[in-house]
Specification:
This protein has 417 residues and is mainly alpha-helical. Helix content is 85%, strand content 0%.
Length: 417
């Protein structure tokens, strides 16, 4: 009976810790992904082209790619609690600097620094989920935590864009950073690492051990191939969130407010998708999460083709449904992706594995959104941009097939509980 009570208390504590991780993720995403809803105002303020606008998310993910592996290593060594506030603090300060600059390249530099802080949240929170939750409920927990990313982004579109129109994008973003710092301090105080996590922190004491573990992760072909797949999906996701307001405003001739609500709808779809896809993989596919990746990729490609055909005369309901499904798929897969990655390696290396996959996948965001913007600039239409995304999803399906083949060759072996 004591053992049962102990397990019940542990599970109850796990869900409490998940709430704190979710709160942290929401606020970090609220600020970190604020560039998407504010893009049109920043672009007007600094007279940016579509290509330059595409460089904003690219800069964010450049910082993410540079910091992902070091932050993953730190998460393995320090645990989640110690890294939480440092991450929030760096992000808040870097985005405050964004509100103070009027030069595009200084803006990009501050975004790169903020991207480094944003990257640290992935291994920090993923490690918390991995140790607090057993394998049979981990997909759902990871989906809930990852929902914080799209929820934060949706809140940014819902609150920041109207506020920025009233008081300016700089004051609106500045106030948001102050709220982030306050909430970050609260979360860092109340969140606790699990006892198992504390006793199993990485004990890397020299560079040779680090490089040995890094090579071990990189030599895992499933991790590598899944990370390459995520490059395409991450790039497609940022094409949607970065350009949907401009697309709706310029191509579909919507008002700025209605265009902003499309971004909110896409992020709401993504938030629901992150929980739904994780729960579906747990309950209906017995933890076989690769099939979810196929579903997501195919749906994303279909939605991109539909986007390419949308016209100003298209019924609003049809646009809303397509936007929701687009977000549900391309912004909803992240929890499943992260869960697969941490289950493919030893628990003690989960932070490092997360860092590796985030580093690799971030290159998709460095390349794909700016190229999308370049296609729009040179062709004079968004149609070819969305067709480019559809073709990209065909490539991702082929890479996922290779990932599945590797899994079958290894007999489905996974490093899980």
């Amino acid at each position: 009976m004591a053992s049962v009570n102990s397990k019940g208390q542990t599970l109850q504590t796990a869900w409490k810790m998940l709430i704190w991780l979710l709160v942290a993720q929401v606020m970090v995403s609220f600020v970190g992904r604020s560039l998407a809803p504010l893009t049109i105002l920043i672009g007007k303020d600094l007279s940016l082209s579509h290509t330059q606008i595409g460089l904003l998310p690219a800069a964010l993910f450049l910082g993410q790619s540079l910091a992902a592996i070091p932050s993953g290593l730190l998460a393995d060594r320090l645990g989640s609690k110690k890294q939480l506030f440092g991450t929030v603090f760096l992000l808040g300060i870097s985005f405050i600097l964004i509100t103070l600059t009027t030069h595009f390249y200084l803006l990009l530099f501050a975004v790169v620094v903020g991207g480094g802080a944003y990257a640290a949240m992935h291994p920090t929170t993923n490690r918390g989920i991995l140790y607090w939750f057993p394998q049979h409920s981990r997909g759902t927990a990871m989906g809930i935590k990852q929902m914080g990313i799209t929820a934060g982004s949706a809140l940014a579109a819902l609150l920041l864009l109207p506020a920025a129109k009233e008081i300016g994008w700089r004051p609106a973003l500045f106030i948001s950073c102050l709220v982030l710092l306050a909430v970050g301090a609260l979360v860092a105080y109340y969140y606790q690492d699990s006892a198992q996590s504390i006793t199993k922190k990485s004990t890397l004491s020299n560079k040779s051990e680090f490089w040995k573990d890094l090579r071990m992760v990189l030599n895992n072909r499933q991790v590598l191939l899944l990370s390459i797949s995520a490059m395409g999906l991450q790039g497609a996701q940022l094409c949607l969130t970065t350009y949907i307001i401009l697309f709706a405003f310029e191509k579909l001739e919507m008002t700025l407010v209605l265009a902003g609500l499309l971004l909110v709808l896409a992020e709401v779809g993504g938030s629901i998708g992150r929980v739904a896809w994780g729960a579906i993989s747990d309950r209906f596919f017995a933890g076989n999460r690769m099939i979810i990746m196929f579903f997501v990729t195919i749906l994303t490609g279909i939605c991109a083709i539909i986007f390419a055909m949308l016209l100003p005369a298209t019924p609003l309901l049809a646009v809303l449904i397509t936007v929701f499904i687009f977000g549900f798929s391309v912004s909803g897969y992240n929890g499943v992706w992260m869960t697969i990655i941490v289950e493919l390696v030893q628990k003690e290396k989960s932070g490092l594995a997360t860092g590796v996959t985030v580093t690799i996948s971030s290159w998709g965001v460095l390349i794909i959104p700016p190229l999308f913007g370049y296609i729009v600039d040179t062709s004079g239409t968004f149609t070819y941009g969305w067709l480019y995304v559809a073709v990209l999803m065909m490539v991702v399906v082929l890479v996922l097939k290779q990932t599945t083949s590797q899994q079958q060759m290894k007999g489905g072996d996974k490093h899980v509980d």
